[in-house]
Amino acid sequence: MARRCELTGKGVMVGNKVSHALNRTRRRFLPNLLNVSLLSDVLGRSVKLRISANALRTVEHRGGIDAFLLKADDAELSPNALLLKKEVRAALAQ
Questions:
Q1: Domain limits of the chain?
Q2: Of 40, 48, 91, nearest to 66 (Cα)?
Q3: So what CATH class is 13-93?
Q4: Hey, is 86 helix, strand or coil?
Q5: How many CA atoms lie within 13 A of 12 on its CB side?
Q6: In the chain, what's the furthest Cα-to-Cα distance?
Q7: What is the DSSP letter of 6?
Q8: What is the pTM of this model?
Q9: pLDDT tens-place string over residues 12-37
Q10: Which of 32, 34, 35, 55 has the fewest CB atoms within 10 Å distance of its CB?
Q11: Spatial distance between the Cα atoms of 71 and 69, rounded to a whole number of angstroms
C-alpha cells in the first residue's frame, strides 16, 4: 500500500537526520495517514479513504467531501477519488 494521501497527493519526503556533532544520515518523513469514512451528502453514503490528517482538516473546512472533491485538481486525486468525484458530479447534474 503506497504511503500517499488519496485527496492531496501528499507523500513521503526524504531528508537528513542531523546529530549534535552535525553528522548527517538519510531519513524518511512519513505523512500522517488515517483510514477514515467520510459521509457524502450528495451520494447519501459513506466513503472509505486513506487520507492525511491535514487533508481531513481541509475537508472539514471546505464543508464536506463533496465540496472538497469538486474544488480539487484532478492531478492530485487518486483513481479512487477521481471515480468518487465523477459520481458526485453525476448526482448533482440530475
A1: 13-93
A2: 40
A3: mainly beta
A4: helix
A5: 7
A6: 64
A7: T
A8: 0.86
A9: 999 999 999 999 999 999 999 999 99
A10: 35
A11: 5
